[in-house]
């Protein structure tokens, strides 16, 4: 009964025109978590996401592919070379002439520079490398590139965020703009600021990407999820990062 009432409230809220969250009211997802969850995230010795960061550090220094080179062979110490990188992705990729997300860029380096096999999205190794690179930007403000070549994709991301979809006929904005002060199924509805990805979720018992989280939302409203790495997801990431500009990177964050 409680779940049905929550869903009814959400549908009611979603029926109203959602409005973007004023800058002064922006909050990280961490602010919606319990004190216990925030404490786990803040303590690197207790944060389970740090296991993926450590795995990523190992992979960073490990030669891979026909080139026999590691990430460190080209980039050196990640603490210096990767500082701030995650804060400005997705970015425009001149080679493909399209926006690329951080996971795509890591895989591009791996296949083209190291001549290694591609890493499937959401694989342990891919998430480990993304978590390690993302962790180097922890505490830095999210800084979306001021690149006009990204404008069209960013606008498409906004359109997708506000487009109703699925059998429940809900848009991302129906929850994250219109209903962020509420709860759904006992969980807080956050403002969808992607400050902590890759992120550790107790629900997953693992680290996962923002695209995995968005696919979960799409399944929740009974829509057909986009494929991992799809242009639609990268467009949504661009838009979400523009909403979160200036908020600190928290990778790896912890959520229920």
From TrEMBL:
Primary localization: periplasm
Cofactor(s) it depends on: heme
Record GO terms (molecular function): electron transfer activity; heme binding; metal ion binding; oxidoreductase activity, acting on a sulfur group of donors, cytochrome as acceptor; transferase activity
Reaction(s) the record says it catalyses: S-sulfanyl-L-cysteinyl-[SoxY protein] + thiosulfate + 2 Fe(III)-[cytochrome c] = S-(2-sulfodisulfanyl)-L-cysteinyl-[SoxY protein] + 2 Fe(II)-[cytochrome c] + 2 H(+); L-cysteinyl-[SoxY protein] + thiosulfate + 2 Fe(III)-[cytochrome c] = S-sulfosulfanyl-L-cysteinyl-[SoxY protein] + 2 Fe(II)-[cytochrome c] + 2 H(+)
Protein's UniProt name: SoxAX cytochrome complex subunit A
Binding-site list for substrate: 213
One of the record's GO cellular component terms: periplasmic space
Family (UniProt): Belongs to the SoxA family.
NCBIfam families referenced in this protein's UniProt entry, alphabetically: thiosulf_SoxA (TIGR04484)
Signal peptide: 1-20
Enzyme kind, highest EC tier: transferase
Domain Cytochrome c: 51-137
Organism of origin: Ancylobacter novellus (strain ATCC 8093 / DSM 506 / JCM 20403 / CCM 1077 / IAM 12100 / NBRC 12443 / NCIMB 10456) (Starkeya novella)
Residue numbers annotated as active site: 217 (cysteine persulfide intermediate)
Cofactor binding remark: Binds 2 heme groups per subunit. Binds 1 heme group per subunit.
Entry binding sites for heme c 2: 172, 175-176, 217
PROSITE patterns named among the record's database cross-references: CYTC
Subunit structure: Heterodimer of SoxA and SoxX.
Subcellular location: Periplasm
Free-text function comment from the UniProt entry: C-type monoheme cytochrome, which is part of the SoxAX cytochrome complex involved in sulfur oxidation. The SoxAX complex catalyzes the formation of a heterodisulfide bond between the conserved cysteine residue on a sulfur carrier SoxYZ complex subunit SoxY and thiosulfate or other inorganic sulfur substrates. This leads to the liberation of two electrons, which may be transferred from the SoxAX complex to another cytochrome c that then channels them into the respiratory electron transport chain. Some electrons may be used for reductive CO(2) fixation.
Keywords noted in UniProt: Electron transport, Heme, Iron, Metal-binding, Periplasm, Signal, Transferase, Transport
Keyword check for tRNA processing: no
EC number: 2.8.5.2
Domain of life of the native organism: Bacteria
């Amino acid at each position: 009964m409680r779940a049905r009432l929550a869903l009814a409230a959400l549908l009611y809220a979603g029926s109203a025109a959602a409005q973007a969250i004023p800058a002064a009211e922006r909050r990280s997802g961490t602010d919606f978590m319990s004190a216990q969850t925030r404490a786990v995230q803040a303590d690197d010795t207790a944060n389970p996401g740090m296991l993926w960061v450590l795995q990523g550090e190992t992979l960073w220094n490990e030669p891979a592919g026909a080139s026999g080179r590691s990430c460190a062979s080209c980039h050196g110490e990640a603490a210096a070379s990767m500082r701030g990188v995650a804060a400005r992705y997705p970015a425009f990729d001149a080679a493909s002439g399209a926006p690329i997300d951080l996971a795509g860029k890591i895989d591009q380096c791996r296949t083209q520079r190291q001549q290694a096999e591609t890493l499937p999205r959401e694989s342990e190794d891919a998430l480990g490398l993304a978590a390690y690179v993302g962790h180097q930007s922890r505490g830095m403000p999210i800084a979306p590139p001021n690149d006009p070549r990204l404008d069209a994709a960013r606008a498409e991301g906004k359109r997708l965020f506000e487009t109703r979809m699925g059998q429940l006929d809900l848009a991302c904005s129906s929850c994250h703009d219109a209903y962020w002060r509420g709860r759904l199924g006992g969980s807080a509805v956050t403002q969808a600021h992607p400050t902590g990805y890759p992120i550790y979720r107790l629900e997953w018992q693992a680290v996962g990407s923002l695209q995995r989280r968005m696919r979960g939302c799409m399944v929740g409203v009974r829509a057909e999820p986009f494929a991992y790495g799809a242009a639609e997801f990268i467009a949504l990431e661009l838009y979400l990062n523009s909403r979160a500009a200036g908020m600190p990177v928290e990778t790896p964050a912890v959520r229920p």
